[in-house]
Amino acid sequence: MELKGKSVLMVVAPLNFRDEELLNTKKVLENYGAEVEIGSLGVAEAKGSLGAVVGVEIDISGANVEDYDAIVFVGGPGTDVYFNEEMVLNIVREANNKGKILGAICIAPVILANAGILKGKKATVFPSGKDVLKSKGAEYTGEPVTSDSNIVTANGPAAAADFGEAIAEKLFERT
């Protein structure tokens, strides 16, 4: 699978994103040749809950959906800062309306649910988020990774590499 020329925005919380969900997913995508940018809100560096510190290449408040083939939300305890952030929900809605690939892992599928794009879609999430997904009309699968049309969701850190593979497959389908 060659993903050269494909661009992915990976969005992390400014503080307490889940390290391996970013790093393992990013590694898979980059190994296939995708360009991956890290985005966050209002910080130059984001800090993971296990100690990773990553440079933030774009403040998501200025992100242009058109610049990316996929937008991926990383989970972790800090992710709740995005749950009801209208600017982030609008990015999700715009990306979905334009048929972009959307990914979310761990608790981050709650962002997609709150944006209203999981209604009638199969999705998975970290167990603490399943009631939110169901209440927003998603068909909760409980699987480690679930793909439905342009949306890929995963349930936590152990699924990060498979999550990356599923996103890579969606990107490859569009080459």
Question: How would you characterize the overall build of this protein?
Answer:
With 175 residues, the chain is α/β, with parallel strands linked by helices. The protein has a single domain, classed as Rossmann fold, CATH 3.40.50.880. Helices cover 29% and strands 25% of the residues. It has five helices and twelve strands. The chain has helices spanning 19-31, 86-97, 109-114, 130-135, 160-173, and strands spanning 7-11, 15-17, 35-40, 45-48, 53-55, 58-59, 70-73, 101-105, 122-123, 139-140, 145-148, 151-154. The strands form three sheets. Strands 6-3-1-7-8-12-11 form a seven-stranded mixed beta sheet, with helices on both faces. It has a three-stranded mixed beta sheet with strand order 2-4-5. The chain has a two-stranded parallel ribbon with strand order 9-10. The mean pLDDT is 97.
Secondary-structure map:
Elements (H helix, E strand, L loop, with lengths): L6 E5 L3 E3 L1 H13 L3 E6 L4 E4 L4 E3 L2 E2 L10 E4 L12 H12 L3 E5 L3 H6 L7 E2 L6 H6 L3 E2 L4 E4 L2 E4 L5 H14 L2
Parallel strand pairs: 1-3, 1-7, 2-4, 3-6, 7-8, 8-12, 9-10
Antiparallel strand pairs: 4-5, 11-12
Record field, number of beta strands: 12
- Low-pLDDT regions: none
- In which range does the helix fraction lie? 25-40%
* Beta strand %: 25-35%
Descriptive keywords:
175 residues, alpha/beta, Rossmann fold, seven-stranded mixed β-sheet, three-stranded mixed β-sheet, 5 helices
Summarize the structure in short.
The protein is an alpha/beta fold and 175 residues long. Helix content is 29%, strand content 25%.
